[in-house]
Amino acid sequence: MRPIAKVEPLTTARALRGPFDYRLPPELLDSVGVGSVLLVPFARRKVLGVVTALAETSDLPDDKLAEPIRALDAGVPPRLVELGLWVAEQYCSTPARGLSLVTPPGTGTGAGARVQGVRTELVARISADGLHALTDSTTKLNDRQRRALEALLSSGEEGVATADAERLTGADTAALRRLERRGLVSLEPRERRRAPVHESVGALVSRPELTSAQRNALSEISTALAHGHGELLLHGVTGSGKTEVYLGAAESALAAGRGVIVMVPEIALTPQVVTRFSARFGERVAVLHSQLSAGERHDEWLRLSRGQADICVGPRSAVFAPIERLGLLIVDEEHDASYKQEGDPRYDAREVAEQRARLEGALLLSGSATPRAESWSRYRRLTLPERVDGRPLPAVELLDMNGVAGALHPQTSAALARVAADGEKAIVLLNRRGWSNFVSCRDCGHTWICPNCDVTLVLHMARGVVSCHHCGHRERVPDLCPECESSDVARHGVGTERLQNDLEQALGGVTQILRLDADTAAREGVTGVLAAFETADSGVLIGTQMVAKGHDFPDVTLGVVLDADSTLRFPDFRAEERTFALVAQLAGRSGRGPRGGRVLVQTTAPEARPLRFAERHDAAGFVQEELTRRQAFGYPPFSHIVKLQTASPEYAAAMAAAEKLAEAIGTPADGRVLGPTPLFKRKGLERFQLEVKAVDREAVVGSVREAIELVARGAAARGVKFSVDVDPQ
Ligand code: ADP
Ligand code: ZN
Ligand code: ZN
Q1: 264-293: per-residue pLDDT in tens?
Q2: How deeply is 353 buried, as exposed, middle or buried, from its count of CB atoms within 10 A (0-12, 13-18, 19+)?
Q3: Smallest Cα–Cα separation from 517: which of 450, 444, 607, 428?
Q4: pLDDT tens-place string over residues 309-325
């Protein structure tokens, strides 16, 4: 008999230390185990909690032990409890936040009704402040607001459609809006998912005859699968047929009675992978992603946990899919930055996948045309050196922009005109949305900046506003300078909106000009824009990084990177790797069909190392040199970096807390501490940053965790928010 359940409550602040003991009443003794989700009384409230252990006795006296109110039907597999707690520890988060990653979506809600026929919806997510508010007695919340926040919390990281939120919590959209205004909830529009294509997939079900490189890779994968735990890196050039290898690998795992997780950067941007898995494996595939309603996500989760589905395809959160007997984890496009979670816990799904593979004796298969230095140096490599049809990769030409006026090099303009005239397609990458990146007064030099953040406001013509890309603040497009009343307002720089306009004027009569960035994605949906480009006879697709993802459009003959310097300039040791990947990935979109293709890269730094390697399609050469460089400077993977931030409306408070942190951490024996350094103000908060670098990750994460707990409890921490990012991207 083990009548004591150790329960980690799912609403918590940093200072709170679980787990807490509860006595199981006789009727729950048989059904409750590690991973059960219980509704428990907690500090005069009712909260959801996860059982992390059972015990025979408690240190608490009998009259201090409360009983759970009830147990929910769906629980968390015990191994995932372990994984959730591991995440909390590795990324300096709290057990509650780690566990909320592995609990059933919409826990405690009863899965249910779906909203049909809606194209867009509003999605609610609880913010860090909202989490804090749940346990912080100084924040005033009425019962309904508290229920709404708790429902959002238990729905997991991806948020809940407001239609569902209304049903779950009784809070209507207006109430959610009020929470949004207090910063406790964020609301964002998103496109609703279209049902995965199960029909009209005849062509996809047909299996191409594998190339010899694909066959070799698959036979190595099968051998590795039979051995249990292992790690492989599939390095295949763009268009080498990696997805076909993943499908074959999944087949082997399933044949051995093991389940499969397939992680992709973003479902909307990589619909082809989902489609092909669904086509091959049908109902065995569950898709978990943010475009599902909470009810739909809950259903998919249950299908997996009951074994009705044994393949899960999804973005980073799919790494937590409740699959028993997991045999294979696939990480497609493993270089993609979206595998890193932005909010607390700031986990890296690739590292979590590695840990899960270890825990479950499964095989980790990461794939990319541009692998990261981390994976290259640590995983055994399988190579697909050529495109499936033996076609060459497109020629990459660097265009020197020094002394060139305007956004387009004359050769770029000419190439785009030719594509239009020949009825072909082009993709143009410009990593800057909006019309122009800032506006200023020609007479007095006044620049429009955000009142909440120290950044310039970006002009968006179609919406008639200048807006802040950090906090969303917006103002009408200015016609008069507030300082000197001059009407001579200058617009600087070219963004995607302006480029679309310019190309529309130059080529609009001949070909279609489409745009894919966060603005058009919110309006028309990513799928809508991509489908329009796919079905167009001829066209130019302009966009931010979104256009460089794994799309497979055979009729694209030209790829263009404008301002390749923008990623190079980034003050970060990963800037070069990111630039190389971006150019190589964009090149991968071009020349996939019989007409071949070319790539033009505009830069003011044509000698830059990543560009020279991209010009030669030499991913192996690049990453090897990159590793040498990182070793010389002691950068990851030869060390670990932990970034800490303090934020407060008060400059002095943010600084004091950061100084206290620096003091508490001291200097690691095998590393150094940089800072505290002030960062630009964001969302009305003054921020300071501390960067700790060390070789021993366990040790540095441990000392950072202790320092934060110490400082967060102290007086200097009042009103200060802390965030920790282990190995930031
Ligand atoms: P990657 O992910 O490596 O860039 P994909 O998996 O998207 O490449 O494959 C590129 C294209 O080649 C797809 O249209 C796919 O259907 C096709 N393909 C894959 N393997 C073969 C093969 N062995 N023979 C013919 N076509 C193939
Ligand atoms: Zn002025
Ligand atoms: Zn702002």
Answers
A1: 998 877 778 888 999 999 999 999 877 777
A2: buried
A3: 428
A4: 999 999 999 999 999 89
Q: CA 26 to CA 31: how far, in whole Å?
A: 10
pLDDT at position 173: 76
Instruction: Report cis status (omega within 30 of 0) of the bond before 637.
Output: yes
Domain 395-433+495-633, CATH number (from 3.40.50.2000, 3.40.50.300, 3.60.21.10, 3.40.50.720): 3.40.50.300
H helix runs in 101-241, sequence order: 128-135, 143-154, 162-169, 173-181, 202-205, 212-227
Q: Span 640-726: which CATH code? A: 3.30.70.600
Spatial separation of the C-alpha atoms in residues 559 and 420, rounded to whole Å: 13
Tokens of 209: 């005859």
- Taking the CA of 479 as reference, the closest ligand is 2
Q: How far is the CA of 415 from the centre of ligand 1 (A)?
A: 27
Q: Is the CB of residue 590 below 6 angstroms from any atom belonging to ligand 1?
A: no
Best residue among 210, 237, 242, 243 to mutate for probing ligand 1's pocket (most ligand atoms within 8 Å of CB) is 243
Q: What is the Cα–Cα distance from 645 to 657, expressed in whole angstroms?
A: 9
345 DSSP assignment: S
Spacing, Cα 470 to ligand 3 middle (Å): 5
Radius of gyration of the chain (CA): 26
Query: Which residue, by CA, sits nearest to atom 25 of ligand 1?
Result: 208
- Specify the CATH class of 120-191 in words: mainly alpha
Per-residue model confidence as pLDDT tens digits over 588-645: 888 887 788 899 999 999 999 999 999 999 999 999 999 999 999 989 999 999 999 9
Ligand lying nearest the CA atom of residue 474? 3
Amino acid identity, residue 627?
A: L
CB–CB of 716/653 below 8 Å? yes
CA–CA dist 181, 78 (Å, integer): 38
H helix intervals, 256-333:
271-281, 294-305
Q: Is the CB of 204 under 6 A from ligand 1?
A: no
Query: Sheet harboring 465-467: ordered strands across?
Result: 458-460, 465-467, 474-476
Which ligand ends up closest to the CA of 369?
1
**Tokens encoding 583:** 């150019």
Is the CB of residue 368 less than 8 Å from the CB of residue 333? yes
